[in-house]
Amino acid sequence: MSEPFSVRITVRGYETDVQGHLNQSVYINYAEHARWSLLQAAGISQAALAGRGVGPVALETTIRYRRELLAGDEVDVNCVFVWGGGKTFRIEQTIRRTDGTVAAELTSVGGLLDLGERRLLADPQGRFKELATDASLFGL
Hints:
Blueprint: E1 5-10, H1 24-41, H2 46-51, E2 54-65, E3 74-83, E4 88-97, E5 102-114, E6 119-120, H3 124-131
Antiparallel strand pairs: 1-3, 2-5, 3-4, 4-5, 5-6
């Protein structure tokens, strides 16, 4: 398997809480940024998804906080899609300082929503293959 897709982010001061560490909700923002960056790198834009009448949805997210992050820390946020056989898929993500220290691990369950029917598509893996110019970023 190739290296997971990753983006680098610098923790900004306004993202920290009164204790001086990264606010809990920002971890989800970082993970979301990495997921959309992967989609874009694979050749899938938000406009293309909407134009095809589909959109990704988050159904569940679990975060394990490992080490605090402070303003100025640089982190790499990776993103790995894990496919099953049904309507959903998992996305495993690690937020890691550039020195290799794991700050957080996130696992999400997602799907692709038919925007007209408001139901999950039966084959999200096939739809991503169809839409992507580089499906290898999804592990496909």
